[in-house]
Amino acid sequence: MSPLPAFDAHDPLGIDDLLGDEDRAVRDTVRSWAADRVLPQVADWYERGELPGIRELARELGSLGALGMPLTGYGCAGASAVQYGLACLELEAADSGIRSLVSVQGSLAMYAIHRFGSEEQKQRWLPPMAAGEVIGCFGLTEPDHGSDPGGMRTHARRDGADWVLTGRKMWITNGSVAGVAVVWARTEEGVRGFVVPTDAPGFSAPEIKHKWSLRASVTSELVLDEVRLPADAVLPEARGLRGPLSCLSHARYGIVWGSMGAARSCFETALAYATEREQFGKPLAAFQLTQAKLADMAVELHKGMLLAHHLGRRMDAGRLRPEQISLGKLNNTREAIEICRTARTVLGANGVSLEYPVMRHSTNLESVLTYEGTVEMHQLVLGKALTGVDAFRG
């Protein structure tokens, strides 16, 4: 009988055993890139509230194969869902804003074109987007309609062979640096998606300032003032809300993994701090209450990582339902933010300093908790699935 492997405080459940060599190579490549290109500077970016060099970062991410990672063809990597999840985890362990850049590019804008676009749209946009040469954004949320996209006011009308779009979208990641926007609008035929070049007359994307979350990220409003588009700008295979909602499911899957990256960063920071910091003549880690905090954080972190792996395997097998993604997003974002808050208490006053990543992750997760569906929305998704009763408008 072979001896048991040593206990690993950073992988207490041995989750690494679930990965193949290619999975580990993807994870390690993204982790190394983030350590080199993001971690040394992200605290300054966050403090300044900007993401300088975003286009260069996008091209580097494209060269890694991280943009549109699980999509096939058109320059995309064709990676597994688990490998994409591992990439999201490593990117968000650096910063949620970087993972958001990748998620919006690949899981929203590129996925919409890949899944619902014409062959001409795919050929035109996907290769440069996969390479990071063109940044995309996804316009669904509106100033007055966040959780209820069915109430959107942005509309598109036919004018001869053209479409004319009018309306506003809000809280759009990548908006003011995007070369293309996938915009959803109400038409006489129902909700349709449009591929909008951002240099089209009437399109503007003023950047949103004064954020206290996702500060190392570009967030914008989209303004469409009689934007005229040719007939072939519409996504031919998307009709109704099923189109944008399927894109959101794809993005939520990345959040299931990414939120655990932020949580891991905070847990590992707290663990290292507790072993090094002394109070009352001994390390913080020697106190029972500190050990209780670390144990609880480790339990929820690695439960969440197991959940992410399970959902990834189901997605790779073509068996992952939207309700299961909601379960993962609800649990992992909620637990991640609690892990970060607990880690902050271990660090004491140092927990609020940008010398450590904990407060930055905590404030970022306030956005991650809300976007791609609030806690309440995912509770109602699960409630409907469990009971068969739709309570969204009840």
Automatic annotation (TrEMBL):
Family assignment from sequence similarity: Belongs to the acyl-CoA dehydrogenase family.
Annotated Acyl-CoA dehydrogenase/oxidase N-terminal domain residues: 21-133
GO molecular function list: fatty-acyl-CoA binding; flavin adenine dinucleotide binding; glutaryl-CoA dehydrogenase activity
Record carries keyword Flavoprotein: yes
Protein name: Glutaryl-CoA dehydrogenase
Cited InterPro entries: Acyl-CoA_Oxase/DH_mid-dom (IPR006091), Acyl-CoA_Oxase/DH_mid-dom_sf (IPR046373), AcylCo_DH-like_C (IPR036250), AcylCo_DH/oxidase_C (IPR009075), AcylCoA_DH/ox_N (IPR013786), AcylCoA_DH/ox_N_sf (IPR037069), AcylCoA_DH/oxidase_NM_dom_sf (IPR009100), Glutaryl-CoA_DH_mitochondrial (IPR052033)
Chain ranges of the Acyl-CoA dehydrogenase/oxidase C-terminal domain: 239-386
Entry keyword annotation includes Transport: no
Pfam families, A to Z: Acyl-CoA_dh_1, Acyl-CoA_dh_M, Acyl-CoA_dh_N
GO terms classed as biological process: fatty acid beta-oxidation using acyl-CoA dehydrogenase; fatty-acyl-CoA biosynthetic process
